[in-house]
Design goal:
It is a single chain. This protein is α/β, with parallel strands linked by helices. It is built from twelve helices and eight strands.
Length: about 300
């Protein structure tokens, strides 16, 4: 199934993003989480991989197993930095063989300690290059691209960043998943600015539940997302009052409120960055969507 075809049906949805475990020994626990969350019937599940494509084969195996063993429609992340065209073609062929027809195309991060000029293929330097490459190689695939409500940290300006997003879509991208944000007004402003320059394709907001102060501060610093002062004060107060469990409670409540307000405003759906944490995601989704999600939760119990 092509994810864009389901999105275009117009029914609001939620989707999930998983992170492959670093160690193979952690895979059984990972698939237990995936099994629990699959019962919530997300529209799709995406799977990341490491800098420079370092866990690409793991991603391929995981999206295949999630689809075949857990009934999830899957989307594989694919990056071009440090990649060879032949290797990318092989990866796309392997996805098609596994009946996975959805890819999230990104430039990707440089491996740690790699020089700024690091790249293997000099004609695949940007996500727009990769998007065009995938569209030419696999015209039947659905291609998602990334958007940055608070502007990509390396962008020349917010305007240039939006122009680049439009280029990715013009080169073959079907829809956008945004980087995480904690203030919904940032998303609405981003969509307004995108529509003003002619971007018409779906823009799906990405939501991250805060599971710990340390984790959210690290992730936010990496992707350039800001944590509103009031929300940070609530998290710090929760940490002083009740430690990690209290922080998690506040973080999940904030993510749930974000999702509720976004859906009420008519967004296509919400994409939840799971951090491979089943309980947090279940607490966000419970009752958020229509009956299928609630019935799945009741079945789990």
């Amino acid at each position: 199934m092509r994810i864009i075809d389901k999105i275009n049906e117009g029914k609001q949805f939620f989707s999930l993003e998983f992170f492959p475990p670093k160690e193979r020994a952690d895979w059984p626990a990972f698939f237990e989480v995936a099994d629990r969350l699959s019962r919530l019937e997300p529209l799709f599940a995406s799977v990341t991989y490491g800098a420079g494509g370092s866990t690409q084969r793991d991603t391929l195996e995981i999206v295949t197993r999630l689809k075949k063993e857990h009934g999830l429609e899957t989307m594989a992340h694919l990056t071009c930095i440090g990649a060879y065209r032949g290797a990318l073609e092989k990866f796309l062929d392997d996805l098609a063989e596994a009946e996975v027809y959805n890819v999230l195309a990104m430039r990707g991060d440089r491996p740690k300690d790699a020089p700024p000029e690091f790249s293997v293929c000099r004609t695949l330097l940007h996500a727009s290059d990769l998007t065009a490459f995938i569209r030419a190689s696999r015209p039947d695939f659905c291609i998602g691209v990334a958007g940055y409500p608070e502007t990509h940290p390396e962008a020349e300006s917010a305007a240039k960043d939006l122009e680049y997003l439009k280029l990715k879509l013009d080169e073959g991208g079907d829809f956008v998943i945004t980087q995480l944000f904690f203030d919904n007004s940032l998303y609405f402003d981003f969509v307004k600015r995108a529509r003003a320059i002619g971007i018409t394709k779906p823009i799906v907001p990405g939501i991250l539940p805060v599971v710990s102060l340390k984790v959210v501060q690290r992730i936010a610093s990496l992707c350039g997302s800001t944590i509103p002062a009031e929300f940070m004060a609530q998290l710090e107060e929760a940490d002083r009052r009740g430690g990690a469990d209290a922080v998690l409670e506040v973080g999940v409540a904030h993510a749930r409120k974000q999702a509720q307000d976004l859906l009420a405003a008519g967004v296509p759906g919400v994409h939840l960055y799971t951090l491979n944490r089943a309980d947090a995601i279940i607490n966000i989704v419970d009752g958020l969507m229509e009956e299928p999600g609630r019935e799945a939760l009741q079945a789990k119990g």
